[in-house]
Amino acid sequence: MTETAWIRFPKDFLWGAATSAYQIEGGWNEDGRGPSIWDHFCRQPGRVQTGENGDSAADHYHRWAEDVDLMSQIGLKAYRFSVAWTRILPTGAGAVNKAGLDFYDRLVDALLEKGITPYPTLFHYDLPQPLQDRGGWPNRDTAKLFGDYAAVIGARLGDRVDHWITHNEPWVTAFLGHLTGEHAPGQRNPFATVAATHHVLLSHGYALQALRAAAKRPLQVGAALNLSPSYPASSAPTDQKAVQFTDGFINRIILDPLLKGRYPEDFTSSWVWRWLERGLGRRSRQLIQADDLKVIAAPMDFVGVNYYTRAVVRYLPVVQSMQTRPKDSEYSQMWEIYPPGLYDLLTRLHKEYGHANWLVSENGVPVPDVVAADGGVHDPDRIRYLRNHILQVQRALAAGVPVSGYFVWSLLDNFEWVYGYGRRFGLVYVDFATKQRTLKDSGKWYAQVIRDNGLQA
Ligand code: IFM
Q: H-type helices in 90-189, by residue range?
């Protein structure tokens, strides 16, 4: 009889789950919270496919204690959540809202009491609307104000919270918010995109300094980046060119400044960049000012990798690269499912950037879950997705990549931005009418993985 081999993870491997404020909290106008760009965006007809918004979301703002109990039931070692800037500083700057700080204070204490390590993220897309009214991320002042916000939250929680994430997916903030317009603030402006990219990265550097200074003790600070390995659609040399372009456009544009202290040449030599620099120069405000890249590239303690899918691309003149949809592959409600991409990505990152601590800060899949007649939520497709990706993390570890943890996106079903509530990513099912929670089969399965610190191959 052959025995199935056990795949075990390193002793202190960090098994976690992640969420974000706007996607789960609700309580959008309670206890002094100010409006964010997502509150505004969702109210513009046609922006969110279903016309929904995060006003009440999963009602985590009121049910956080129940949610911490669920995390404890799953056995999570770490929980990644985001802090709503608008709860802390309702207009983005100036007056601090004590009730907002108290909310995260209580949450952190409850997590610590259950032995769950908090991983707060300072920014997950929900910019205070008053800052948007002053130009948003394309305005350099926003970067400075983000540093001030980090100092406020760092001073309040920095005595107990050891691990911090400055930004979630800076590329998404800059590109989906300012180039494709799919996300708030819904702009379609290449110049705003380039300026937003630089200022979001700069704000990461300011926040890193501010957190460390405010806590007055060593902290572990990183950022969570959406990264996607690219593959050619064919063996044509031009498709290889498309791969290079896509990799620069999605990955290196963020990775290089953070980890190498410079923007990739293929980006800075583009017409948009040069035109923007000239335009800004005329107004005597350089986009990249002295020392900016030093601030951006200050060493991080870990680098978060959010992985969902890969990009398979074909060369097209002018646009350089066009994403294709490989036949005979498997697809979720949103993307191609390609677990080996996570291994390829982690090994490539380690080889090229050599950081000593990589963390899979998000990985997960939307499934059209329903509550079955027996009261359970049976989601074998999610279990298969998570299992196959966790196995790729193990492969990367075996190949020598220092990966310290894995966070499932997401703990709870939540508001999936432009798709509204129509994409369920949670380990926990949320009935959005009653806000009732049900632990899915995947949540029970993940609990077992955590207990075993591994799984059977
Ligand atoms: O829901 C999002 C999350 O806000 C950021 N990363 C990707 C997830 C799935 O689309």
A: 98-113, 129-133, 140-157, 170-171, 177-178
